[in-house]
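User: Before I run my own analysis I want an independent prediction to cross-check against. Here's the chain; please return only the structure tokens and, at the end, one sentence I can use as a sanity check.
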Amino acid sequence: MPRLTPEQVIALAPDASAASAGRELASPAKWASIGENDLAAWGEAKGSGKNPYQTAVDLKDLAYKCSCPSRKLPCKHALGLLFRHAKSEIEPGTPPTWVQDWLDKRAERSEQKAEKAAATPAASPADAEKRTEKRWSKILAGIEECESFLEDAVSQGLYASQSARSWDQMAARMVDAQAPGIATRLKRIGNAIGVGETWGPTVAGQLGNLTLLLEAAKRIETLPEGLKADVRTAVGIPFRKEDLSGEPVEDVWDVLGSSIETEDRITTCRSWLQARSTGKWALHLAFSAAGQPFDFQPLTGTAFHAKAQYYPSAYPLRVNLTEIEPQPFQPRKGGLIAEGLEFAADVWAQNPWAERVPIPITAGSFGRKESDWFVIDSAGRALPLKAEDPWYLVALFGNQPIEIVGEWNGSSLNVLCSSDDPWT
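Assistant: Structure tokens:
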């Protein structure tokens, strides 16, 4: 794969503090030894203890190994190693035994996984449909309980509902009912009650969206096919790649932004792609558990020619990619916030359970009013900024106009990337 850029390394960081710590570890003085080849980069990072931390990165699959106690993935040592790789500061070498053993084990596991997948017969569409029908009956029973819980919570008052009947307990019941999507929404609502000055409108909106989902699930057979697919997805019934139909869209796709989040021990990589010839948006999702690498992780600032098959939806965005061939990345201009909000309104009018939409902004900058931060476009319109550390973004990009790509969830914008690279 092409050599990573420093900006792409920043995008891989689990949070701003890890990215900052990784930058500090990009100094040669921080490493007792270091090396790389076409497959991996490795090194021994100096720490506070007697022995250095052994750190390695699989450059092909972006998998990480480090002997440090951090639970972040990648840890600051892996990020430091990647920063030095991105700046071509590592001399080629032969992997030490501990690195080669790790690479060999990864290759062996990958081969075993492929053999197991090839030996497992695919379920027929008829069998899959029967399982879905059986599962749906459990979901409807769970929905009935969930509606009773919500009625009690609203009538008693949301604060009272926290002690009278736990939102987490109701979420666990929905997991038992095989509706993990509803369970996740319940936990989010419970966690938001009483948090922050604007929690009231936030929770009210989430309750309304959940109530709409429950009602739609009860009437799913009367819905159009696209909306029916959106309800199934929001409830938590995934579509199999084997069940996708329709003609794939073949194009060159530029990766304009990505984010990595962990919830309920599942890590999700969300990557927003845009077709070069039509400007059509696509969302690629990759999942991993227990700190395992993603099967495929599109990196911000890269591009590839691929066939993209869209998942069923009233407003299709998520895709499955096949026949991927790397291509040079072509940066592009965004637009005004008003144009992004118009796109978001169009998506949510057709699929109210789409969690986020991409908004590219030309000549964006960061502003502050008291304790609140905003992203401001060239027309002077602003959106609330979602950031763990807004000062980190300001330190990276200053206050000069930059190209921004963010995810808008209706209340705040999560900045995914900027076309300006402060480290080059």
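Sanity check: The domain at 245-327 is CATH 2.40.50 (OB fold (Dihydrolipoamide Acetyltransferase, E2P)).
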